[in-house]
Amino acid sequence: MAHEMFRPPIHRGMRVLDRSNFSKILPLTAARVFDNKDISRIRSQLEKSKDVLQQDRLANVHPDPDPELARKGRRCILLRPELANASPTEHHVNGDATSIPWPHSPTVTELVEEELISVIPYDLKLDYDYWTYHDVMSSILPEDDQGEIPSGYNGVGHVAHLNLRDEYLKYKHLIAEILLDKNKGMKTVINKIDDVGEADEFRTFKYEVLAGPDDMNVTVSEEDCTFKFDYSKVYWNSKLNTEHRRLVNMFEPGSVVCDVMAGIGPFAVPAGKKGVFVWANDLNPDSYTSLEDAIKRNKVSDYVRPSNEDGRTFIRTATAKLVKTAHNVHITTKPSKKDPSAKPQLVRTITQPKTFNHFVMNLPATAITFLPSFIGLYTPTIRQTLPPNYPLPILHTYCFSTKSDDNVLESQKICDVISKLLDCEMKPGDIEDGGVAIHDVRDVAPKKRMFCASFRLPRCVAEREVEGWRAEIAAWAPGALMRAVGADD
C-alpha cells in the first residue's frame, strides 16, 4: 500500500534518540515541467485526475532533481506512488526519452504528448523532521507497548506536563525528547511523580524534569487574559478552560461572585473583564501573589478583590463585609485622540450589589465539605441591613465521584451528601425549581469523574440557627464525606 511507504524506519527498543536513523528515500515519479509558467495549470489538471501526490505535510512541487535544471529554477510535480511502481511505456519528447507508467493516466499521457511535461524518476528524501511524534514513537516502542502510546500532556506555557504510566517510564527521557522536537512551543517536559494534592494542601505536586531546563515560571493566556506564575507552586489545569468559560458565562455583568478557592484567577479574572465583581480568595500564598499579579496585568482591579485566608472563614467574613462595602465603578468615555485636553465624560456608574449572586468552590477533592459554612450565613444582624426578600446565591461546588453512562447514580450520591451537610433535602433538578444541577466536567481517571453541583442556597439553610448543628457536622469527617459521594473509589 502507498501509505506504508510514508511510515518511518522501524527501530524497536531504541533508548537513546538517534535522529539520523529516521532518514528514508522513497522512489517516486515526477512530472518535469518544461516551463514554470505552466506549473499552476498543470498541477490543477493532475489534481483533478488524482495523479498528484497527496500526503500530509508534504508539498508536491519540488525543485528538479537535476542540479543544473534546479539552478535554473526548474521544478517538477510529484506523482502518486502507484505510478512509480507501474511498468513504463517510453515516449520521446523534444528528443528526450520519457517513461509514462502503465496503466497510465490519460491526463499524464496528454500532458506528455503536448510536450508540457516529461515523466522522470524522483527520489524523495524524508528525515526525522518529517515524522510526527506518534510516527516516531510507533517505530521505537515494542509492539507489546503500543496499546496507548503516551501522547496526551497538559501544556502550561512552555511546560509539557506528563503523567506517564508505569510501563512507559523506561522510555520517559526518549518520550520527552521527541515531544520537545515535535512541539516547538515547549521548552521543558516534566513527569508527575505523585497525585495532585498528595504533597500538600495547595494541590501542587512533585515532579521530575525529563527534558529541557527546570524552569517552571510560565506565561499562560486564557479567555483573553494573561497569567504569569510558578507552576511548581500553584495549581493550574489548562484542560479546565472550557469549564472556566462555561461558568463565567453564567455571571451577569454587574453581579458579584465569591470565588472561595480562586487559585490564580481562571474564573475571577475573565469574570472581572466582563464587568463582574469578584471577591477572590485562595489559601496558598503563592496563588494569592499570582492572583494579585493577574488582576493588575489584566487591568481588572476595579472589579476583582483578592484575599488570602481560609475558605471556610472567607465564606462568612466576605458575606458580612459585602453588605457594609460601598463600591462603584465609573464608566467614562475614552480619551479623545483629536482633543487630548478633553476630559472623559461619565457614561454610567456600576454599583456593587450587597449580596453575592454566586459562590464558586473549585477544590473538587474537598470543596463539598465546606458547605456547612453556609448554614446560618445570613445572620439576624446581616438580615437587618437587607430587604425582606433579598436574593439568595447560587452555589457552584466541584467534586469527584464515580463514572457511569448516564450519571444518574452519581447525581443522587452527590445530592445525598449535600442534603446531609445542609440538613435539607436536595434532589437533582433545575436550579430555579430548587433542584441541584449536576454538570459532568471531565473524566480524571478510569473510574473517576469531576462534577459541578450548582444549586440556589435554600433560605431555610441560609437563615438557620447554627449552634447544635455545627457540632453534628464536625463529627462527620471529610473521609466519610468522600466515601459517601464515591470520590475515593
From TrEMBL:
<comment type="function">
    <text>Specifically methylates the N1 position of guanosine-37 in various cytoplasmic and mitochondrial tRNAs. Methylation is not dependent on the nature of the nucleoside 5' of the target nucleoside. This is the first step in the biosynthesis of wybutosine (yW), a modified base adjacent to the anticodon of tRNAs and required for accurate decoding.</text>
</comment>
<keyword id="KW-0819">tRNA processing</keyword>
<keyword id="KW-0496">Mitochondrion</keyword>
<dbReference type="Pfam" id="PF02475">
    <property type="entry name" value="TRM5-TYW2_MTfase"/>
</dbReference>
<dbReference type="Pfam" id="PF25133">
    <property type="entry name" value="TYW2_N_2"/>
</dbReference>
<dbReference type="InterPro" id="IPR056743">
    <property type="entry name" value="TRM5-TYW2-like_MTfase"/>
</dbReference>
<comment type="similarity">
    <text>Belongs to the TRM5 / TYW2 family.</text>
</comment>
<dbReference type="InterPro" id="IPR025792">
    <property type="entry name" value="tRNA_Gua_MeTrfase_euk"/>
</dbReference>
<dbReference type="GO" id="GO:0052906">
    <property type="term" value="F:tRNA (guanine(37)-N1)-methyltransferase activity"/>
</dbReference>
<dbReference type="GO" id="GO:0070901">
    <property type="term" value="P:mitochondrial tRNA methylation"/>
</dbReference>
<keyword id="KW-0949">S-adenosyl-L-methionine</keyword>
<comment type="subunit">
    <text>Monomer.</text>
</comment>
<comment type="similarity">
    <text>Belongs to the class I-like SAM-binding methyltransferase superfamily. TRM5/TYW2 family.</text>
</comment>
<keyword id="KW-0808">Transferase</keyword>
<dbReference type="GO" id="GO:0002939">
    <property type="term" value="P:tRNA N1-guanine methylation"/>
</dbReference>
<feature type="binding site">
    <location>
        <begin position="310"/>
        <end position="311"/>
    </location>
    <ligand>
        <name>S-adenosyl-L-methionine</name>
    </ligand>
</feature>
<keyword id="KW-0489">Methyltransferase</keyword>
<keyword id="KW-0539">Nucleus</keyword>
<dbReference type="InterPro" id="IPR030382">
    <property type="entry name" value="MeTrfase_TRM5/TYW2"/>
</dbReference>
<feature type="binding site">
    <location>
        <position position="244"/>
    </location>
    <ligand>
        <name>S-adenosyl-L-methionine</name>
    </ligand>
</feature>
<dbReference type="InterPro" id="IPR029063">
    <property type="entry name" value="SAM-dependent_MTases_sf"/>
</dbReference>
<protein>
    <recommendedName>
        <fullName>tRNA (guanine(37)-N1)-methyltransferase</fullName>
        <ecNumber>2.1.1.228</ecNumber>
    </recommendedName>
</protein>
<dbReference type="GO" id="GO:0005759">
    <property type="term" value="C:mitochondrial matrix"/>
</dbReference>
<dbReference type="GO" id="GO:0005634">
    <property type="term" value="C:nucleus"/>
</dbReference>
<feature type="binding site">
    <location>
        <begin position="282"/>
        <end position="283"/>
    </location>
    <ligand>
        <name>S-adenosyl-L-methionine</name>
    </ligand>
</feature>
<dbReference type="InterPro" id="IPR056744">
    <property type="entry name" value="TRM5/TYW2-like_N"/>
</dbReference>
<feature type="domain" description="SAM-dependent methyltransferase TRM5/TYW2-type">
    <location>
        <begin position="153"/>
        <end position="459"/>
    </location>
</feature>
<feature type="binding site">
    <location>
        <position position="362"/>
    </location>
    <ligand>
        <name>S-adenosyl-L-methionine</name>
    </ligand>
</feature>
<keyword id="KW-0963">Cytoplasm</keyword>
